[in-house]
Amino acid sequence: MKMGRGAGRALPLAMALLLALHLHATPASAAPKSYLVIFDGPPPSPTGLAAALGGTVDLIYSFGSIKGLGIQIDSLLVPVLKLLSGVVAVIEDKLYAVQTTRSWEFLGLQNSNGEAHDVWKNVGKFGEGVIIANVDTGVSPISASFRDDGTLPKPANWIGGCQPGYSGCNNKLIGARVFNEGIKAMSEQNGEQVNQTEVNSPWDYEGHGTHTLSTAGGGFVPNVGALGHGTGTAKGGSPRAHVASYKACFKEGCSGLDILRAILTAVEDGVHVLSLSVGSPASDYATDTIAIGTAYAVTQLVVVVAAGGNDGPAAGSISNVAPWMLTVGASTMDRTFPADVVIGTKTITGQSLSGSTDQPCAMISGEKANAAGQSAANSSLCVPGSLDPAKVRGKIVVCTRGSNGRVAKGEVVKDAGGVGMVLCNAAASGDDVSADPHIIPAAHCSYSQCIDIFNYLQSDPSPMGAIKTRDAELGVKPSPVMAAFSSRGPNTITPQILKPDIIAPGVNVIAAYSQEVSPTGLASDSRRVAYMVESGTSMSCPHVAGIAGLLRAKYPKWNPNMVYSAIMTTANRGGNDGVGIRDETGSAATPFSYGSGHVNPVRALDPGLVYDTTTHDYLNFICSLRPTDTQGLLPVSLPLPLDILWTLLIRVFHGTDSNPFQCSKGANRPEDLNYPSISVPCLPSSGSFTVKRRVRNVGGGAASYTVSITQPAGVTVIVDPSTVSFDGKNPDEEKHFKVTFQVYDPVKAANYVFGGIEWSDGKHHVWSPIVATTKCG
Fold it and tell me: Catalytic residues (predicted)?
């Protein structure tokens, strides 16, 4: 039996017991905390563990499938717990956060008349028979998006269901459960009270979970919109799929233990596609319960799609970076919700879902409307209490984005007596604007537009303006454009894996909403709506999950990695104006923003070739992270020793197609994971560096593919062989190739440079982006 901290480093049990008793007798006591404990065999009983520790152990969850326990103990006992025989890892629980009528037409699955593309209806079968689930804030069963129209059969091989006492489940919404022990323990530890109604029910009291689940798999619902805007037929990417909700997120956040229990339960229940619009800043895989849970899910052939986070545009802000999940960034679509700001003879068009002002009104900048004792910096942001009612009453106030929420600023203006708001981006947000359901007439305008507005306010001694909102405008160019909030690469945990993998619509997405909460989430907002606009990578993630459902329906025998590859290698890299994808400032975006590109579901359903990443590949990848193999290339200090990371994840992946498995000495590099993209940090300035890949023909019949190369600046890329041929007789036939890098201009290659390779047989185009640099870490 291996010791928890590696052979030779664990104390004998008797010594550990003495230390535990000594700590237990110490007067000082730390507050209890929650932990995930992984063992190298069947977990002990809580009673047995308490006896070994000499302290109280409260069981939160048992995670049998990964040999783990979720427990609450005094934090002073943690050093002893780590030294007990059989303990592999001790991971403190933490909070995670949650992160459409037009989008499917924009993605090419239906024409301008709303008619479904043959690929969507007949090839992807609208996702029929597939089970898509999310881990989120719950679901509203009264939404029309989840009604049973009587034509859906009962799902096959489904053992899940609904929480006792929860009504609303049917052959469409087949599961609704809540996992709350972790959040209740954390709230108790922090001396906080939770809303018992919300925390104990699978019902959605936030709106987020209903929105994301309906985006992935909601049924067809005609004549719906958001507050009268964007009316059309709402539907998910797999509208004939079955859907299930695993509630692990609440107003307080999402406990990592609750998320882990939800993921493992979804796998046990028989889910095919798991959508995770939840995350936290990237952390070592061995301390990230999402990474641990999804590693197990992938071994059980569950497709995992995860939001990349809303911490952009900062470099290295991407989260959910493990290679066994498909990580999604957010971009715009070709629809806006115009709101005109009329100032003098000029009209500036922003976005909003609010109403209009009845007539022209006096205008004032928040900066000049500060209340007594409040700085101009505070009042420019329209934070609570910063505005002087005497200066604001009856006026339109111009507020700058930042600090508090966008709709909350409108509430501040209204409370001070203002009648409208212009919300202006700061320079960092560029042209990234959102259509929000403001409680007063409002328009959200870009940074460049707001320069004109501020110039007008400064030049006119009595500035006047009006806000006039209009219905949705379609065909907007350029689209897609990166959302400023979408988190960016590089991957700070393993830079050899490019993240995000893909982007999808995540701005101003209309989908189902819970009527238990107002559209703004403000307590003063008494409105209730059945469908609402939301923005975030939380919204882009379920778009891709819905598309994964179509792939699962067409190719039920494919493993998750083949689905990931099909989605990534067929993505678009250009906008509807014939130019490459732009970022929020209008500059050219890079793969650190969009990964492989913008998702193209029609092409994804016929990818031609796929990169089939097996469990054996993942095991070798994990082996490559061991200290003897990293050569100091990891860019961050890991909170757990690498041998523990390896031990933990090897045990999660072990046994699917690699039993027994041993790491090959010196033969594993993270760059060689058979991943659909290629990221090579730490390139040598002289000599060459070679990575390995292999592809499988899924296009049917004999085929010959030839490679073309987009060379990164300062680097020469050679692919050998340059042609791969398949005889079509063996459906599992794979072809191996090597990609060699040689730096010819170290100055250019010192920064990240970008290129790619594309395999084509004349019909299919299989793209893999390349990211390279001579920098290490």
Answer: 136 (charge relay system), 208 (charge relay system), 538 (charge relay system)
Claim to verify: residue 184 and residue 329 sit in the same structural domain: yes
Any idea what the CATH number is for the domain that residue 176 is in? Answer: 3.40.50.200
Tell me the backbone φ, ψ of residue 86, rounded to 5 degrees: 90, -10
What is the DSSP track for 430-451? TT-------SSSEEEE-HHHHH
Structural domain contains residue 13 = no
DSSP state of 193: -
Active-site residue, 565 included: no
Same domain, 223 and 258: yes
Rounded Cα distance between 356 and 350, Å, is: 13
- Residue 228 class from Cβ within 10 Å (0-12 exposed, 13-18 middle, 19+ buried)? exposed
Is the pLDDT assigned to residue 7 strictly greater than 60? no
Catalytic residue among 143, 277, 317, 538, which?
A: 538
Residues 239 and 256 in one domain: yes
Residue 302 sits in the same domain as residue 410: no
* Of 623, 626, 670, residue with least CA distance to 650: 623
- Domain membership of residue 79 (yes or no) is yes
Shared domain check, 62 and 111: no
Residue 89: pLDDT over 80:
yes
From 143, 187, 201, 208, the catalytic residue: 208
Half-sphere exposure (Cβ direction) of 320: Cα atoms closer than 13 Å: 33
pLDDT tens string 580-608:
999 988 999 999 999 999 999 999 999 99
Confidence of residue 618 (pLDDT cuts 50, 70, 90): confident
Average pLDDT of every residue of the chain: 89
Distance from the Cα of residue 703 to its chain's centroid = 36
Domain-embedded: residue 377:
yes
334 labelled catalytic: no
With respect to residue 313, please indicate whether it lies within any of the assigned structural domains: yes
Q: Which of 92, 116, 136 lies at the terminal end of a domain, its last residue?
A: 92
The identity of residue 160, as a single letter, is G
* 190/314 same-domain check: yes
CA 11 to CA 28: how far, in whole Å? 24
Active site residue 543: no
Structural domain count of the chain: 3
Looking at the structure, do residues 417 and 299 belong to the same domain, yes or no?
Answer: no
H or E, element range at 474 = strand 473-474
Catalytic residue among 136, 432, 583, 617: 136
Which residues does residue 61 pair with via DSSP β-bridges, in sequence order? 70
Claim to verify: residue 519 and residue 451 sit in the same structural domain: no
pLDDT digits (tens, 9 = 90+) for 676-712: 999 999 999 999 999 999 999 999 889 999 999 999 9
